[in-house]
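Please describe the entry underneath.
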Amino acid sequence: MTKIVFIEADGKEKEIDAQNGLSLLEVAHNNGISLEGACEGSLACSTCHIILEKNIFEKLPEPSEEEEDMLDLAWGLTHTSRLGCQIIIDDSLEGMRVKVPSGTRNMSID
């Protein structure tokens, strides 16, 4: 298990014991965090867009071209944005803080 802190759009923080091997999106859904994930992790939308601290962002593997394409559609994109469905939990992420943006853009609806 890896401790992760989610910072929701309203600023409230929720510390979670996340199961290694799950995606950040799955962890969010399993713990009542408001992270949409309209495509259910199939890398077909940007609704699981999250913002990471720079030190964690730099530890992660580079995003795939497909993830970068979806991130281009994300609402509130930052230099440390990633898609939660593409981040797999492991011990190296212990203590990471994940900001959930206050909005999403779902291209199939918006």
